[in-house]
Design a protein that fits this description.
This protein is of the alpha/beta class. It is 20% helix and 26% strand. A hairpin with a 3-residue loop joins strand 14 and strand 15.
């Protein structure tokens, strides 16, 4: 399996290196000028429904029905404008219950046939969400999916290194949440490769801490499905607040990016430089419930569909949230050692 992944990595222009017993490292080149830009979208896989297609399609595609007319500046158009290097998916890739197998047509119906814009034909770095674990979770990790669509790359947890400009550590957050094990309601979760949970989470935290400690990247970014901080429907994830957040604080992480709540959101940590960025609005949204508790540090919240862009240089970062029509909802800029925001 390792040899097969290595050969696929060569084919797709990626270099797989060992970081620890658990985490794979992928090398992502930055642009010639040393900058990096990417899109972040989550909670999307609904075969185009709930505005998933509107979020995805580019404005000038001549193959779109009139519903997706000139006013719809979505991911494809923004991706072209920024000349993005890759796309980050924050999980819940296929609703409602993940993929049934690696041959499930939902992979093409919700991914390959939806994100067709030319600018989106870049590598997609993907984590699993709780809905993905309700199906065949290992199917999304299968190299067979990369044969169907070479953009797709999903591991449980892994690292993307972009020329030491940025390091993105993708963390499998679903096993952290006790409720999925103790009170799963009527859902069945695929815990193959996870049990025993305590050992899995402990080892993962050690791997994340080691990777962050050894990182020399200018920008340290951690990506997971579940929010650490959120005022959306699900709110804070207490297990991540207790166990993952201290690791991020101790290792000077700049951004934690997630989905899970179907909204767009920016919260600044009150006692560290960490910025909590939620981009889980790739399809179904508009829940209409906002937590009134623990709103400290909240800078922006939007309860509708959309996505996020990230642009990085060695000294500056710009985060922008867009709605389903491509309208800029919120823009935030950061400079190393100096942070400010603007709308």
């Amino acid at each position: 399996m390792a040899d097969q992944w290595f050969m696929l990595g060569i084919i797709y222009g990626l270099c797989f290196l060992s970081v620890s017993a658990e985490l794979e490292r992928l090398e992502q080149p930055s642009k010639g000028d040393g900058s990096l830009s990417f899109l972040v979208v989550g909670d999307w896989g609904r075969r185009g429904a709930f505005n998933q297609s509107q979020v995805a399609f580019q404005v000038h595609s001549t193959s779109l029905p009139s519903l997706y007319g000139a006013k719809h500046m979505q991911m494809g158009k923004i991706g072209e404008k920024l000349d993005i290097d890759f796309v980050v998916s924050t999980g819940d890739n296929f609703y409602d219950n993940g993929l049934s197998s690696e041959h499930d047509p939902a992979f093409e119906e919700s991914f390959a046939n939806i994100y067709t814009a030319r600018s989106l034909q870049k590598q997609w770095y993907t984590v699993l969400g709780n809905h993905d674990y309700r199906g065949d979770a290992e199917a999304q990790l299968s190299p067979l999916l990369r044969k169907i669509d070479s953009r797709w790359l999903c591991f449980r947890s892994f690292i993307v290194n972009a020329d030491e400009l940025a390091e993105l550590i993708f963390v499998d957050t679903t096993p952290f949440v006790k409720t999925y094990f103790l009170d799963p309601d009527d859902h069945t979760y695929d815990w193959r490769g996870i049990a025993p949970r305590e050992a899995y989470v402990t080892n993962l935290l050690k791997d994340v801490e080691s990777a962050l400690r050894e990182s020399s990247a200018k920008w340290k970014i951690v990506v997971g499905h579940h929010a650490i901080r959120s005022v959306g429907h699900h709110g804070d994830t207490e297990e991540l607040v207790s166990h993952l957040l201290p690791v991020l604080k101790a290792n000077n992480v700049d951004f934690y990016m997630n989905g899970h709540d179907h909204c767009l959101e920016h919260i600044t940590d009150t006692d560290s430089p960490i910025q909590f960025l939620t981009s889980g609005a790739g399809s179904k949204a508009w829940r209409g419930d906002v937590k009134q508790l623990n709103r400290e540090g909240l800078s922006f919240f939007y309860d509708g569909q959309g996505f996020m862009t990230v642009e990085l240089t060695r000294s500056d970062a710009e985060i922008v949230f867009y709605d389903v029509y491509g309208k800029i909802l919120y823009r935030w800029n950061a400079r190393k050692h100096f942070l400010h925001s603007s709308i």
